[in-house]
Specification:
Oligomer: single chain
CATH class of the largest domain: Alpha Beta
Structural class: alpha+beta
Helix content: 25-40%
Strand content: 25-35%
CATH superfamily of the largest domain: tt1808, chain A
Number of helices: 5
Distance between the termini: 55 Å
Largest sheet: 6 strands, mixed
Length: about 220
């Protein structure tokens, strides 16, 4: 009976989300943590959970996904040269913000250093990310750079957050300093630039390889 009720709730939430995405770029719907996990399994795109709301923009653009795939490939090349153990994950793995009960985000790319630590009773929600990468979208840019960033910084394992704009050459990186509460921000706007990642570097020319910008 309880399972059937959860299925009905998930179905109703799914229909509400899909309907609202027809008229809105960013959808925010009040929901419980249980409802979030139930409907997450029913949708063909990622959703996130922020302060008792489901947040989603629906399907990502072609260029968003191309940059995401390119950056994952660049990270594999970079970490193959490292002696330490790193795992690279895509957006089907989530993170939980430790100081905000029920806060779950789905970064486009995540790097875990050493053994992954999971949310209790989960093998999909990570609580010890080392690097988080977000490829920005017009609908979620403000949300990503404000609300999510401030909460990402609360994760003690996290050492770097990278934001990539798929609409123009623009990459921002936030690196935790020796003072754990201080982050160093750098912004890059030229294909000749390179950003530091785990004691190595990745060029913007490689990140934006074969990316076509709308005029």
């Amino acid at each position: 009976m309880i399972k059937n009720k959860a299925m009905v709730i998930a179905k109703n939430l799914k229909e509400t989300i899909l309907t609202e995405l027809n008229t809105q770029q960013l959808v925010r719907i009040p929901a419980s943590e249980e409802e979030f996990f139930a409907v997450a399994e029913e949708l063909p795109f990622k959703i996130e959970y922020h302060q008792n709301e489901i947040v989603t923009m629906g399907l990502a653009s072609y260029w968003h996904e191309k940059i995401t795939a390119t950056f994952i490939g660049l990270l594999f090349q970079l970490f193959n040269l490292q002696k330490e153990d790193f795992d690279i994950l895509g957006s089907n793995s989530g993170v939980q913000i430790p100081k905000f009960e029920g806060g779950y985000y789905m970064p486009d790319v995540m790097v875990v250093k050493g053994n992954p630590a999971f949310k209790e009773k989960s093998r999909a929600i990570i609580i010890n990310p080392y690097i988080i990468v977000e490829v920005l979208s017009p609908a979620t840019k403000a949300f990503d750079l404000s609300e999510k960033l401030s909460e990402y910084k609360l994760m003690s394992s996290l050492q770097q957050v990278i934001y990539i704009n798929p609409e123009k050459v623009s990459v921002s990186t936030f690196i935790r300093s020796e003072n754990p509460n201080t982050w160093i921000n750098q912004d890059f706007y030229s294909l000749e630039d390179a950003l530091s990642v785990a004691n190595s570097s990745i060029s913007l020319a490689d990140i934006y390889h074969k990316i076509k910008f709308e005029e």
